[in-house]
Automatic annotation (TrEMBL):
<feature type="domain" description="KAP NTPase">
    <location>
        <begin position="165"/>
        <end position="436"/>
    </location>
</feature>
<dbReference type="InterPro" id="IPR052754">
    <property type="entry name" value="NTPase_KAP_P-loop"/>
</dbReference>
<dbReference type="InterPro" id="IPR027417">
    <property type="entry name" value="P-loop_NTPase"/>
</dbReference>
<feature type="transmembrane region" description="Helical">
    <location>
        <begin position="53"/>
        <end position="73"/>
    </location>
</feature>
<protein>
    <submittedName>
        <fullName>KAP family P-loop domain-containing protein</fullName>
    </submittedName>
</protein>
<feature type="transmembrane region" description="Helical">
    <location>
        <begin position="107"/>
        <end position="132"/>
    </location>
</feature>
<keyword id="KW-0812">Transmembrane</keyword>
<keyword id="KW-0472">Membrane</keyword>
<feature type="transmembrane region" description="Helical">
    <location>
        <begin position="16"/>
        <end position="33"/>
    </location>
</feature>
<dbReference type="InterPro" id="IPR011646">
    <property type="entry name" value="KAP_P-loop"/>
</dbReference>
<dbReference type="Pfam" id="PF07693">
    <property type="entry name" value="KAP_NTPase"/>
</dbReference>
<keyword id="KW-1133">Transmembrane helix</keyword>
Length: 736
């Protein structure tokens, strides 16, 4: 059985192309000749009787029409364009088939008439509209990429990353099918920043072009609560004018009368009486007249009131009065976004209003639909893709997401970024740090530390200022192997089982500021920051765990005492390490550079192995010259190329011991005066054992060669020369 709503049917007939297109078609069909004669006398004969076509005229005419199409596409709404183009095409087709007219063709395109170009330009307006909107979005995205990310609400379905448009569309459909005799109020519930505005926009998007008059009222922009009623009815009157001028005037008069009657009422008890008393605004003749007129239009009036939770208690009550009484009209639907806990708390402070008062106002309250598990992560991922370098984004996508966010630290991720606004705010904070030091520090460490700073700024400061309480430096013999690791203590759990916990966690528990979940989140992030152990040193040598880089993560800049990781990596990849060595020497960074050389993992490829050792031997002379020969960590260097259990020759030289021997010999043979670095290194090699790839005799020969070359040079028998031969570290030279 099918029921027809007469009001709704009337409204649909008012919408193009049904009634407008039908009327135009009827007029053109039955009055074709009179209309043609009228056009001929009023327009065509005066403008075009002496028109002369030509290539220039053709070109100018096409350009003019194209510019007109661009203007329409840029300045007008899609609804207006559809109507204009649709009516224009109907008019074009009837005149094209009308025997009364003889159409002039272009000179450039003889098979096409000027009238045809007019129709084409109209049709072109539609794709131009979408093209301009796309370009506007690209420009907007480009501007965002260079600056901060704006916390904009969703204005199109493409921006709906949380897929809430499905629920929004269903709500819109039910609104359209609801034949309400009084206003129907829908509350959309959600915490601050959870996306209420975006959800309200999605509902309105689904109502667009559906015989709906959409109105957005912002009571928080009104100066005071006494002006809210007046501003509301002024706005309603202005918008209603689009469909009925008489009703608009009536609403304006009705609103001003209400403002005059109730403008001086300051008592909450009077307001309660206003809502409940028999002298309500609904008993007035104007109210009934407006109600009947709204019902007759067939339009659904949807009034969106967002951020009700921005208002103070008197303002909230004033808005609720509008919905419940003074603007309780037929065919009106209110969409109101608010944090229910805040609203209930506010109205509860006013005498006479109970916390369940909202139930009398709203026929329906909808908690904001929850997002899917990965929605926030996808939003973060999409934004980071625009911000990060290819290398860092690859780390985020293929290492951090599967290993951290979706596995070990998923709880931390959910606890820190709880809603879309958090993602935007975090990105803006992270963008500053990343732009300043993103290429200097380890990306993963920076991301985790910035997550802590965003959600728990006081703990971020605590990690920096009291790091000695929570971290200890693993003091290996070699400087380059030292790193910070979480300090742990043994503690018994609820099952009387002894486990190791971080001092950081116990400190947080003693503070008493955080719940158990926050403590676990912070402890998990802290452990992931300082993940090194006895058996696993931090892989990235610019990690926060290494003392040389710890300060940079909090300072956001390099000091004159810091080695630039970015410049170091560029020197490695460009083959300009010699120039970088000179730069570091001139700026007092020779110790830091040698630490980075010794941190290099040279156990994977032969070219890298030989290259790094060549750098160390070359720069070792400078180091010894600046610091003294006994300040160099010779044992650390020996461990990098000693060939324990033939590991180096087997893995890098394919068991070609001769090639390995030749390379090591060349390092000592290519030494430069004053040879103090190489001479001291040989002492430690000879002292270690007799299993080195070069024999002790060969090493002694190198030492003797150093002495002879020094003595025969302009050094003569200087202190450095004599050291090579009389040093207690040096065996007596042998002659060949």
């Amino acid at each position: 059985m099918i029921f027809l709503d007469k009001n709704n049917l009337k409204g649909r007939l008012n919408k193009f192309p049904f009634l407008g297109g039908l009327l135009l078609t009827v007029v053109l069909l039955y009055f074709r000749i009179p209309v043609s004669i009228l056009l001929d006398n009023l327009l065509v004969r005066h403008l075009f009787s002496s028109f002369e076509g030509g290539p220039i005229s053709d070109f100018l005419f096409i350009v003019l029409l194209f510019l007109s199409s661009c203007w329409l596409a840029k300045k007008q709404s899609l609804k207006f364009i559809y109507k204009t183009v649709g009516l224009g095409l109907i008019f074009y087709l009837f005149q094209k088939t009308n025997d009364y007219w003889d159409f002039t063709n272009l000179v450039l395109l003889t098979s096409i008439a000027y009238w045809d170009i007019v129709a084409v330009s109209g049709i072109l307006t539609i794709p131009l509209y979408f093209l301009f909107r796309r370009l506007d979005k690209l420009v907007s995205d480009s501007e965002t990429l260079g600056g901060f990310v704006e916390d904009n609400s969703v204005v199109s379905y493409e921006d709906d990353h949380f897929k809430r448009n499905i629920v929004a569309s269903e709500i819109a459909s039910l609104i359209l099918n609801t034949n309400n005799k009084k206003s129907f109020a829908i509350g959309v519930l959600g915490k601050y920043g959870s996306g209420k505005t975006s959800f309200l926009n999605l509902i309105n998007l689904s109502l667009r072009d559906k015989n709906v008059l959409a109105i957005s009222f912002d009571p928080w922009s009104v100066a005071n609560h006494e002006m809210i009623r007046r501003e509301f009815f002024d706005l309603l009157s202005d918008k209603i004018a689009e469909i009925d001028l008489k009703m608009s005037s009536l609403i304006y008069s009705y609103g001003r009368k209400l403002a005059g009657i109730y403008g001086h009422s300051q008592s909450w008890l009077n307001w309660i009486g206003f809502l409940r008393g028999s002298d309500s605004a609904q008993s007035s003749g104007e109210y009934r007249q407006i109600n009947n007129m709204l019902k007759a239009t067939g339009y659904k009036v949807v009034i969106t009131i967002d951020d009700l939770d921005r208002l103070y208690a008197p303002e909230i009550i004033e808005v609720l009065k509008l919905i419940r009484n003074t603007a309780n009209f037929s065919n009106v639907v209110y969409l109101v976004g608010y944090d229910k806990e805040y609203i209930q708390s506010s109205i509860g402070t006013i005498s006479g209003f109970t916390t369940d008062y909202l139930d009398k106002i709203f026929q329906l309250e909808i908690p904001l639909p929850k997002y899917e598990k990965d929605d926030l992560l996808n939003g973060l991922q999409g934004r980071l893709k625009e911000l990060l370098s290819e290398e860092h984004y690859d780390v985020f996508e293929n290492a951090i997401i599967p290993n951290d966010f979706r596995n070990r630290y998923e709880k931390a991720y959910i606890g820190i970024l709880r809603q879309n606004r958090d993602v935007v705010r975090f990105l803006n904070s992270f963008k500053i740090a990343y732009n300043l030091i993103g290429q200097e520090v380890d990306f993963k460490c920076l991301l985790i530390l910035e997550l802590i700073k965003f959600r728990f700024p006081q703990i971020y400061e605590l990690i920096y200022s009291q790091s000695d309480k929570f971290l200890y430096e693993r003091s290996f013999l070699s400087t380059h192997e030292q790193f910070y690791s979480p300090l742990k203590i043994k503690q018994k759990d609820a099952f009387d089982k002894t486990t190791e916990v971080t001092v950081f966690k116990t400190h947080l528990e003693k503070l008493g500021f955080f719940n158990e979940e926050d403590v676990l989140i912070l402890d998990g992030l802290f452990r992931s920051l300082f993940s090194g152990s006895d058996y696993n040193r931090p892989e990235q040598k610019n990690s926060i765990s290494y003392p040389m880089y710890f300060e940079i993560y909090f300072r956001y800049r390099l000091s004159k005492y810091d080695l630039s990781n970015n410049e170091y990596q560029q020197a490695k990849s460009s083959g300009k390490m010699s120039e970088f060595m000179s730069h570091c020497t001139n700026h007092g960074l020779h110790k830091e550079l040698m630490v980075r050389f010794l941190q290099e993992d040279i156990s994977k490829e032969r070219p890298h192995f030989e290259q790094v050792l060549t750098w160390i031997f070359s720069f070792g002379r400078t180091f010894v010259e600046r610091e003294g020969m006994f300040r160099f960590d010779y044992q650390a260097l020996i461990d990098k190329f000693y060939n324990y259990h033939n590991y180096i020759t087997d893995s890098l030289y394919k068991k070609d011991i001769g090639a390995f021997n030749f390379f090591i010999n060349s390092l000592f043979s290519n030494a430069l005066a004053p040879f103090l670095f190489e001479n001291e290194l040989i002492f430690y090699l000879k002292k270690k054992s007799s299993d080195f790839v070069i024999s002790k005799e060969k090493m002694t020969h190198h030492q003797y060669s150093y002495f002879i070359r020094m003595a025969e040079s302009n050094h003569g028998l200087s202190k450095e020369t004599l050291w090579l031969i009389i040093s207690p570290h040096t065996d007596p030279p042998i002659s060949e």
